[in-house]
Prior knowledge:
194 residues, alpha+beta, CATH 2.40.50, seven-stranded antiparallel beta sheet, 3 helices, 9 strands
Amino acid sequence: MKTINAGGKEYELYWTTGKVEETGKNMETRISGGGGGGATFGGYGATAPVNIQSQTIVHDQVFLVDDKGLEHSYQLQGFNLACRASNILSIVQSVKKGDKKGYYIAALNHTTGQAFYNKAALNSMFRRPVWMLLVGILACIILGSTFGILYMGIFVLPILWAVEGSMGAGKFKNTLNIEEYNEYHLPPSTAISV
């Protein structure tokens, strides 16, 4: 187990290292849209443009056998993991101190030397809690009436909040040493991917 501080919180990192026995991959496409419609009256009118968006999410299923001969199965979302049977792989999970559930944040392929990450989970880990952002915006509104320039914080704070998550995640990725995770550290049985 390893402990890191992220976004003002303490996380425990657990990982399982083993030989890949089998893998599977599925793709899910989520489509959303809106708009369209409109009205005319007396020969005049307008229509709203239609906006359609799609997002493809990759689901990886991996079966590992650890050095004790125990088999572990993982269903990972958003990694797009590249591995095959016989590769040595570590699945890293973060659990906020005091919690029983956590997130799979990294898959480390020791055979190829590649690391794959759950970007959304990492960004969420390294961001401050939402309530802190809301308190900051509220303070800008209240103090902005006295000191006009503080109104700018209403627009700046959300940007800084989002950037903090991606910068922390980037720093974590850059300082990660794959070899540190080559040992076997079983996560708590109650920790599951959320």
